[in-house]
């Protein structure tokens, strides 16, 4: 079992501030309208960030089986984090735009 809040806080440690985020809890085959959605809007306050993180303070099964968390967290430095998944095992991935190759300059 994993705690969604602690996992996200650990991922964000030492990275840029969160710009906005959208995370959904549920299985892909569920009706999306019935799945809890956690949203942190652009230009949020520190209190709204704290409330968002507090809302993620729940346990979920990040091991093999079905994926339970989906979403994206955008960071102020232009990078973003998405959920990775393989055979039901899931994790956060930090994404960075690749450098433009010299041949394109």
Unreliable stretches covering 5 or more consecutive residues: none
- The residue fraction in helices comes out at 10-25%
Number of folding domains?
A: 1
- The sequence of SSEs as H and E is EHEEHEEEE
Please give the alpha-carbon distance between the first and last residues: 47 Å
Please state the CA-atom Rg, rounded to the nearest Å.
15 Å
Helix/strand/pairing category: alpha+beta
In percent, how much strand structure appears in the residues? Answer: 35-45%
Tally of strands: 7
Q: Tags for this entry?
A:
105 residues, two-stranded antiparallel sheet, 7 strands, 35% strand, 2 helices, alpha+beta, 18% helix, five-stranded antiparallel β-sheet
What layout of secondary structure does this protein have?
Layout: E1 2-3, H1 4-12, E2 18-25, E3 37-40, H2 46-55, E4 59-60, E5 69-75, E6 80-86, E7 89-95
Antiparallel strand pairs: 1-4, 2-3, 2-5, 5-6, 6-7
What does this structure look like?
- The chain has 105 residues and is of the alpha+beta class.
- It has one domain.
- The protein is 18% helix and 35% strand.
- It contains two helices and seven strands, in the order E-H-E-E-H-E-E-E-E.
- The protein has helices at 4-12, 46-55; strands at 2-3, 18-25, 37-40, 59-60, 69-75, 80-86, 89-95.
- The protein has a five-stranded antiparallel beta sheet, covered by helices on one side.
- Strand 6 and strand 7 form a beta hairpin.
